[in-house]
C-alpha cells in the first residue's frame, strides 16, 4: 500500500515510455517555475499478479519488477534534474499505478501522466489509468501530450454552464495568471443536441436568440473571477458547435487546455464525460482535468 504523502508536490507517473518522459520534463519545468516539490512514482502492481487472489507471484518475477522499477525511477530522476533543482523525491509503490496515484492525489498539487504507455506486467500509463485518474483523483490531473512548448499561446478552458465546470474555470484563471498569459473561455452549445431535438430541420431555425442566451451564460460564469484577476486578458468565444470539435480545434492554439471531469448532462458515477475523454485521447496540447 502507498504509505507516503505527496505533501503538495507535483506527482508524476512514470513507466519508462517516451510519453512518461515527456510528462517528467513538463512537470519538472513547471516545478522549477513555481518552486514546487516533485514526486516521481512508479507502480509495480504486485497485488494484481496474485493468481486467484491467493497464490503469490514468483519471487524472481517480483525481484525483476523491482529492479526494473528502480531503473525507471533513476532514469526519470536524471531527466527531471536537468530541468529543476526543486525538492525531488521518487517512490516505488507495490500498488498498481492507478491505486498509488489515486491515493497520493489526496495531498498532491496535481497528478501528471504521459499520453501513452505500453508496459504489460506493470503500470500502464495510457488510456485506462489516465481516464481513471482523470475521473477519480482528488486534485487536477494533466495528460501531457502534443506540443509542450508554450510560446505565447493562451490557456483555453471549456465552459459549459454546469456547476461541474466551475472548478475548471477557477483552475484556468489561476493557470493563466501563473503563466503570465491570456485566457480563452470557449462555450460551445453542441450541434449534436440540436440535431437530436430538431432533426434534419435544425439548420432552418434562427439560432440568434439562443446564441444571445448562451453568450450571457458564459459571461455570468466568468464575471466574478475577472474581478479577482484584473490584469488577465480574457477572450469570450461562443460557438454553435459540438464541444469536442470546438475544443480540439482550440487545442492547436493553446499551451494548456482545461476542462471539467464531467459537464452538462453528466450522471453521478459516470467515469468521465465524453468531451473530456476525447480531449485526453486527441488534443494537440497538454490537457488538465479539474475536479
TrEMBL record:
InterPro entries linked = Rossmann-like_a/b/a_fold, Universal_stress_UspA, UspA
Asked if the record carries the keyword Iron-sulfur, the reply is no
**What range(s) does the UspA domain occupy?**
10-145, 155-290
Q: Signal peptide span per the entry?
A: none
Q: What's one Pfam family here?
A: Usp
UniProt entry tagged with the keyword Nucleotide-binding:
yes
Gene3D superfamilies assigned to the protein according to its UniProt record, in alphabetical order: HUPs (3.40.50.620)
Q: Which UniProt keyword terms apply here?
A: ATP-binding, Nucleotide-binding
Family per similarity comment: Belongs to the universal stress protein A family.
**This protein's name:** Universal stress protein
